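queue> pop job 88
queue> type: inverse folding (structure -> sequence)
queue> payload:
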């Protein structure tokens, strides 16, 4: 009986150590992700402050040309100005699109916040993007909203390095539990469904999936373990709630087979 207890205790100790390890990885990855988002937003805020004076002495077309020249030095896809009174976005490339910015983004920026949007489709490439948005203040008042779009490969690259012996992947979920990024696939343009990524199939898989979403709603950090029914592989899932620039309800998840630790 003593040997059985010792074996059980050893497995428990090992599992706890594995859980601590995968949580540490998730926390490091979360910091990298939030640092990336923060740096990009600081860049956009800097552009807004430095070039606001040019707007006073330029036509809109001239200012958009300045934006085009400046943004070539950064990792943004497109930059532009959104005017709330007409709900119109003027892009650096000369395109004009109505109702481009989500209303929740507009509301927060008009309150003086810099925010990042949920995932939307780029109106030009039809690929998923996020939008950085910040107040464009001229002569002490918010003249417009300065925005910049960014596609997923940059964010994907930031997180793709988090593997152990070539195993494991990162998933970023938005507040609607939609997958924004998954590094399990080599294509950053086609995030998969979370249930599919976790190989949660059948009735038992659905229960595990709903349990995970419930835990995400209630906890800021944590680790779960489960066994894939078909392969009998045990996996660990560590998660960290992301809190940066309006993304308070996003989560970063690290998934790793326990056998590689």
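queue> result:
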């Amino acid at each position: 009986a003593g040997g059985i207890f010792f074996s059980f205790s050893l497995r428990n100790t090992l599992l706890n150590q594995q859980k601590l390890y995968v949580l540490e990885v998730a926390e490091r990855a979360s910091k990298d992700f939030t640092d990336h988002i923060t740096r990009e937003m600081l860049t956009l805020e800097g552009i807004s402050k430095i070039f606001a004076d040019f707007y006073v002495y330029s036509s809109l077309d001239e200012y958009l040309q300045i934006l085009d020249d400046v943004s070539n030095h950064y990792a943004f896809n497109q930059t532009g100005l959104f005017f709330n009174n007409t709900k119109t976005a003027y892009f650096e490339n000369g395109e004009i699109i109505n109702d481009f910015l989500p209303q929740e983004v507009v509301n927060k920026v008009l309150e003086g916040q810099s925010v990042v949007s949920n995932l939307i489709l780029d109106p030009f490439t039809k690929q998923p993007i996020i939008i950085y948005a910040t107040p464009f203040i001229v002569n002490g008042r918010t003249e417009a909203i300065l925005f910049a779009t960014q596609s997923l490969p940059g964010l994907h690259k930031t997180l793709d390095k988090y593997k152990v012996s070539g195993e494991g992947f990162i998933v970023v979920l938005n507040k609607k539990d939609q997958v924004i990024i998954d590094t399990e696939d080599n294509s950053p343009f086609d995030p998969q469904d979370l249930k599919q990524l976790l190989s949660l199939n059948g009735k038992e898989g659905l229960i595990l999936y709903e349990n995970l979403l419930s835990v995400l709603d209630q906890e800021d950090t944590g680790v779960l373990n489960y066994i894939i029914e078909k392969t009998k592989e045990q996996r660990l899932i560590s998660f960290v709630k992301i809190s940066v620039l309006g993304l308070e309800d996003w989560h970063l998840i690290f998934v790793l087979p326990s056998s590689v630790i």
